[in-house]
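cron nightly-structures :: item 1 of 1
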Amino acid sequence: MTAAHGDTSEGEVGAFVDASARLTGFGAEELRALGMAEAYRALVLAEAGPQRCARLVDALSGPGSVSPVALDGDLLELGRDVTHLWYTGSWPGRRGGSGSFVVSSASYAAGLVWRAVGVPAPGNQPAGYGSWAQAPTRAEEVRWAGVPPGAEEVR
């Protein structure tokens, strides 16, 4: 049985995570650590169907799984949807199917977009009473300004 035909064994979820790692650019362990793998796999199975999900996972796994893969047509669309899911915690929805929706508050907070930009999900982690009254450190200013490490000016 291929990686996405409805069995929720660890191997099936692991194959989905490995394929997702290829799509997102984040490591499989990073994705597993988010705690969303089983929920995301179940959502993709429900929204895209077991056959499409299996075809995508199969295309992104196996020999040569380190080299780039050219997805086209239906698999390209599904690959974009899965990438969108991991980065934003929401399913984008498609013509003829369900509309766009956020999977859960946990999926919003676990979105890879926040890790990519190096900030916590807005509204998810309270900064603490009075934190607004403290001036940011130089390191925080540099990080928020998007200046690459080592390129910051000396004051």
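cron nightly-structures :: done
Helices lie at 10-24, 28-33, 37-48, 50-59, 73-88, 105-110, 112-117, 138-145.
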